[in-house]
Design a protein that fits this description.
Elements lengths: L4 H21 L7 E2 L13 H12 L10 H10 L12 H19 L7 E6 L4 H9 L4 E5 L13 E9 L6 E5 L10 H4 L3 E4 L3 E5 H7 L4 E8 L1
Antiparallel strand pairs: 1-4, 2-8, 3-4, 3-8, 4-5, 5-7, 6-7
Helix pairs in contact: 2-3, 2-4
Length: 227
């Protein structure tokens, strides 16, 4: 049998085309993106909201007005009282939202500096591509959830948590969430609905769809950025 150069080159071209196409099809999913916002523990039971507010303020270099630790300073900004607690009738999400909207001006004015306002937008929820966009532009996302009631709790509680990263994309998007509340091992809503612990101080990873449906994501403050 004689060697046919034309056949050889056609075969080679076909192989290269197949390899290139395979490379496109099997391209890896978008890599993990994580903001430099470590999870802070709550200083006392019921103070998880203040830990979330502290994470946002420290991330944007907002000073502590003191003299107590920052979570108490933030609570004082909301109430004028020194008991380190938010108003009893106010939701966690509302309290943290008020901190985002006003504490940076208050803190800088306290130190005789020019006030810096925060910009933000509000929504019910935002789609996966918008979450990815926010993290890509290095902006944390404040959200409200309503996980199932734990043993010993008399009612379900709407809570504020912070999305600080993503892994993957599209229908397979995973959210990285800072949530300082201390859950009993058998009553952790992230683990119950397919998530995992990333940091024992209160950082979890869970699918976007599971987070939305089972942890009942219901409100959002995003595009948070100093003006």
């Amino acid at each position: 049998m004689f060697w046919k150069p034309t056949v050889f080159w056609k075969s080679l071209a076909g192989a290269l085309l197949l390899a290139a196409f395979s490379g496109i099809v099997t391209a890896p999913a978008r890599a993990e993106a994580l903001l430099d916002i470590p999870p802070y523990p709550e200083t006392a039971p019921g103070q998880a909201w203040a830990a979330i507010a502290e994470m946002i303020m420290v991330y944007y270099d907002v000073p502590n007005t003191g003299p107590a630790e920052m979570q108490c300073s933030i609570a004082f900004f909301l109430t004028g009282n020194e008991d380190c607690r938010k108003p009893a009738s106010e939701s966690e999400f509302s309290a943290v939202s008020r901190v985002v909207k006003g504490y940076s001006q208050y803190a800088r004015e306290t130190f005789g500096e020019l006030p810096i306002a925060m910009r933000w937008e509000a929504a019910t929820t935002i789609p996966p591509d918008e979450v990815v966009h926010e993290i890509r532009f290095e902006r944390p996302i404040l959200v409200e959830i309503e996980p199932a009631r734990n043993e010993g709790e008399t009612k379900t509680e709407k809570r504020a948590v912070l999305i600080v990263g993503t892994d993957g994309t599209g229908d397979n998007l995973q959210l990285i969430v800072n949530d300082p509340k201390i859950y009993a091992p058998t009553e952790n809503p992230y683990l119950e609905f397919g998530g995992k612990i990333r940091d024992n101080s209160g950082q979890y990873q869970i699918g976007y769809a599971d987070f939305s449906a089972f942890l009942k994501w219901s409100a959002t403050l995003y595009k948070i950025k100093p003006d």
